[in-house]
Design a protein that fits this description.
Elements lengths: L1 E5 L4 H12 L3 E5 L20 E6 L8 H22 L3 E7 L8 H15 L4 E6 L6 H6 L5 E5 L2 E2 L4 H11 L6 E2 L3 E2 L4 E2 H11 L5 E5 L3 H8 L10 E2 L4 H12 L1
Parallel strand pairs: 1-2, 1-3, 3-4, 4-5, 5-8, 6-11, 9-12
Antiparallel strand pairs: 7-10
Length: 250
């Protein structure tokens, strides 16, 4: 079937597109690089024609509340309206484990996205996942000078490929509301993940863990981003991801 993938050129989106193609579906990529701006609706008209389902893995690189909420509110409304107009039967959205329990700006945006999907015109499924193995990469890449500042955070990182597979597996299924969240096989400190990534890259950067102030810091260090309910357990470890990083550099 034809399946629209909103954010289909990003980390998860590109993997979802590949898995849908391998399964015999026809993915339709919605992204700025393909002429579609979901925040304004530019280029969206007619793009979803014939699409029976929609996978939403849109993202914005902002931790501030106002731009995050603004992005997800506009993009989700436009996507749902277009999906309803096209007669899509199912929208599948990716969200985050612990999104209700940590009051950082980006999470307010994800909460808004979930609210709009839940109350929108198209039957829905929401999959929450923990942070991906790749989460430390932008922290390391964005560091200026020899130091990498990383928030103190207890995580249960999951393979991006497994997240994409779980999303693709929902295509063709009945809308399920909130399905079992997905988390990785081990709990790790984000600072340790960053140190191991730096080492795998052969870098000399120094990782500096910083505890965020107040309730946010307490929640992040206290396990608020870990699954608290029954969850699907990914199999791939962070060590496997690091081996792939090292192999790419060799």
């Amino acid at each position: 079937m034809r399946v629209a993938v909103a954010g289909g050129t990003g980390l998860i989106g590109a993997l979802v597109v590949r898995k849908l193609t391998e399964a015999g579906h026809e993915p339709v990529v919605l992204a700025r690089s393909r002429g579609v701006d979901l925040t304004t609706g530019t280029g969206l008209a007619g793009k979803l024609d014939g699409c029976e389902e929609v996978v939403d893995v849109t993202n914005v690189m902002s931790v501030r509340r106002k731009p995050a909420v603004g992005f997800f509110a506009a993009a989700t409304r436009n996507l749902l309206d277009a999906a309803a107009t096209a007669g899509a039967r199912h929208v599948i959205a990716l969200s985050i484990v612990g999104v209700d329990d940590v009051d950082v700006g980006y999470y307010f945006g994800k909460r808004k996205q979930e609210e709009l999907v839940r109350t929108g015109p198209v039957p829905w499924t929401i999959l929450r996942a923990t942070q991906f193995h790749e989460f430390p990469e932008p922290l390391v890449d964005g560091a200026r000078g020899p130091f990498v500042v990383v928030p103190q955070e207890l995580s249960q990182p999951v393979s991006a490929d497994e997240v994409a597979g779980a999303l693709a597996a929902q295509v063709g299924q009945e809308p399920g509301g909130y399905v079992r969240p997905l988390a990785g096989p081990e709990q790790l400190q984000m600072a340790d993940m960053a140190r191991r990534l730096v080492k795998a890259r052969g870098s000399r950067k120094i990782v500096l863990p910083v505890r965020l102030p107040g309730a946010v810091g307490k929640a992040m260090t206290g396990g608020a981003l870990l699954p608290r309910e029954d969850y699907a357990r990914g199999e791939r470890t962070f060590a496997e991801y690091l081996r792939r990083v090292a192999n790419r550099l060799s």
